[in-house]
Amino acid sequence: MEQVIANGLYLGAQYALIALGLTLIFALMNVLNFAHGQMYVLGGFITYTIYGQLGLPFVVALLASGVTLAVIGALMEKFLFRTVIRRSHREESTMLLAAATAFFFDAVILLLFGEKQRGVPKIVKGVFNDAGIIMPYDRLVVGALAIIFIAAFVLYMQYSRVGRAMRALAQDRVAAQLMGVRVDRYSMIGFAMGAMLAGVVGGLLVTITGVNSGIGGPISIKAFLMVMIGGAGVVGGAIAGGFILGMMESVGLTVLREYGDVTYLVIFAALMVFLSVRPNGLMGKPWG
Amino acid sequence: MTLNRNTRIAAVVAFLAIVFVAVPAAISSSGRFDLYYTLTSVALLSIASAGVWLTFYIGRINIGQGAYALMGGYVSAILVMNHGWSFWLTLPVAGLFCAAASVLIGLPILRLRGVYFAMVTLVLTEVARLLALALPITNGAKGIVSIPLPGALSVFGVTLIPDFATLQNSRLAFYLLAVTVMVVCFAVMYRLVNSRIGKLCQSLQQNEELASSIGVNIAYLRVIAYAVSSFFGGVSGAIFAAISQSIYPSSFTVTDSVNFMLNCFLGGLGYVFGPMLGTLVLYFGWDLLFQTGQFQLLIYSGLMIVLMLVLPNGLLSLAEMTRKKG
């Protein structure tokens, strides 16, 4: 049982980090970023190239993943989403754009990196084995890093000038603008940060699960799940959703093992029931 | 649309003449019989997309049509294979089954709005796939294969539709079947949208609370719209299963659900015939780009992004723009 909880916490930490980026972009721009999983995959491949192929230190690779994705995110916001939001009659049109960029990233990733499963050498060797818990050290490191990143993100949003501006923006766009917040600039920074988070998680997880070009879509779906559990556009909700999904997956895989591959079916069904009781997730704000 | 009655009738007649006479004639004279399959797919996909459009019409983004298409396909396939039903009987049954299921699913989830509804329906597609994998009756990942072609349909001894297996050109038969169903579906949609219910649905799209406050039964209306939408999805899935003579859990996936939504967006959400046009353009665009090999997806998605930047309100909004200027 300790093992199950430890696995759940480890999964939850990385899931929460994925969900944070998605929820940030949603909170600022009301855009459901379909390409989030693809950004994750791209981050993974960049780390794979720099750390696995070129042999540079892991930290450099992780930084490169984050920075590249941040730049991509900023450009996407400036040249794609901003334009479409301005010209379109309906807010939902951004969903088509997001889906198209997801396909686009899929194609680019496939062309640049091929369809093979890629992995990198372990960052830390050895296995932690004590008190009934068996956990490789690299997982512990990644889990700890994920938690540090989450904490840093929350602190940044809470206490920095940029973070405050973004929170104001998420609360009420027009009011923030009237108070002199430069809405365009902070939307761009927010999008860049969301994309950066996706890239960083991709870079972290390539050391453990590896990466291949096909996992972008499923990762996006998982991220949607977490955001729905916690409530879209709320930082705390994304973190809670991530840990809840990680825990459910870990427990489900153990408890439901004899019934075959039904863990996700059960999770989906539970989610449907949960959402019919609480349509906005644990702490989401109502829509519309 | 402010076309007068005569032009509208003329347009409908012209459209019917094109799909039922001109297209088969052109195909048989050019010998490109593979186009039948393409056009049949377009017709079927546009039926499913029409359903998605209808949910857009009540202000919901539906990315779950793949679930109902899959459900319809399985219902038809199981009834034909295990219970020996005629395909023609299973077609409405599949649609009704999906509609009934959508009422059950819709009652709770239609309370959700915006992105929440979109995400839940996306998850629904995934649920349908996992269910098809897990249930014993659907035969798991192996799917249901070698479904017989639709048999003859006769009423009081008069053969209305001949047995597809005896036909020389079953492609043409499937084309006519798909197009007929498509025309009926869009006629129903047009009628629905231009009726009292349609106007009420439009009020839902704009402001549900306000509509509710002046006595519109919003819960009832949105369930009805969702049921009709799912009916379309089920019918389209059932015909698909009959054409490919097989159905697998992966026959309709999240990608298909997203594509149905994209078809609607591309055609334009404000126009009943938007989904048909969107499907045609997207499907043919994808097919044409096949020659570019590995760059197919890159060019396709790149074009889609450009299109979105230039025409964020859909292809049919072009007509509106020229009218405004002229």
Task: List the defining traits of the structure above.
heterodimer, A: 288 residues, mainly alpha, ABC transporter involved in vitamin B12 uptake, BtuC, two-stranded antiparallel ribbon, 2 strands, 73% helix, globular, B: 326 residues, two-stranded antiparallel sheet, 13 helices
Short description:
Chain A contains eleven helices and two strands. Chain A has 288 residues and is an all-alpha fold. Chain A has a single domain (2-277), classed as ABC transporter involved in vitamin B12 uptake, BtuC, CATH 1.10.3470.
Descriptive account of the structure:
The complex is a heterodimer of chains A (288) and B (326). With 288 residues, chain A is mostly helical. Chain A has a single domain, classed as ABC transporter involved in vitamin B12 uptake, BtuC. In chain A, 73% of the residues lie in helices and 3% in strands. Chain A has eleven helices and two strands; from the N terminus they run ααααββααααααα. Chain A has a two-stranded antiparallel sheet. The N and C termini of chain A lie far apart (43 Å). Chain B has one domain. Helix content of chain B is 72%, strand content 2%. Chain B contains 13 helices and two strands, in the order H-H-H-H-H-E-E-H-H-H-H-H-H-H-H. In chain B, strand 1 and strand 2 form a beta hairpin. In chain B, helix 2 packs antiparallel against helix 9, helix 3 runs antiparallel to helix 4 and helix 3 packs parallel to helix 5. Chain B is globular. Chains A and B meet through helix 3, helix 4, helix 9 and helix 11 of A and helix 4, helix 5, helix 10 and helix 12 of B.
